[in-house]
Amino acid sequence: GFRADEFVHKKYSTEGFRLQLIEVVYDDKTKNDLIESVLSHIMEVYDSATQNDKESCIVIVKMMINEFQFMFKNKHFAYEEEIRAVLQVPKEQKRDITQITKRKHRDNNGLIVPYVEYSMKSSSVINITIAPTIKEEIAVSNLKDYLLSKNLSCIHIIPSDIPIRTI
């Protein structure tokens, strides 16, 4: 968990990026309402639109899908009450993305995932939620030890609410 004000003031604008805080939507009805609010306007004008306007409508739908992919999450995760910090790279810079100096890579279940580091004050971190594990006590103990070694012992550690299936 982070203090949101840390993200409000800091931007990657010097590199042309936009950092946006997005509140995750879990409720299916709310998701449908958001999609319908965009699509209903497009459907009203699409049939009578010029070819250029139709192409603009398609661009709007693509933008909507792009925005909603970061906003929507399965309702079973609603307890997380997640707000995501999304760093957006403008389309015109995507072909030059290899030139971005802060760009790094990590492994996530066999996939190489690009990311950009975002420095923030340690006081901005409020809590850390530990992933579900059978060895929860060890995970909490090791994390406490790590935080203590970094002078971050004031950060609250929260075990996951997700139950572990045992065989």
Brief summary of the model shown:
By secondary structure, the protein is α+β, with helices and mostly antiparallel strands.
**Structural class, please?**
alpha+beta
Order of helices and strands: HEHHEHEEEHE
Which strand order spans the largest sheet, edge to edge or round the barrel?
A: 1-2
Number of helices: 5
Q: Radius of gyration from the CA trace?
A: 20 Å
- How far apart are the termini? 32 Å
Regions with pLDDT < 50 over 5+ consecutive residues? none
The coarse overall form would be extended
Strand content: 15-25%
- How confident overall, as mean pLDDT? 82
Share of helix among residues? Answer: 25-40%
Main β-sheet, in a few words? 2 strands, antiparallel
- Beta strands, count: 6
Structure description:
There is one protein chain. This protein is of the alpha+beta class and 167 residues long. The protein is 38% helix and 19% strand. The protein has five helices and six strands; from the N terminus they run H-E-H-H-E-H-E-E-E-H-E. The strands form three sheets. Strands 1-2 form a two-stranded antiparallel sheet. Strands 3-4 form a two-stranded antiparallel sheet. Helix 2 packs antiparallel against helix 3. The longest helix has 21 residues, at 51-71. 0% of the residues are buried.
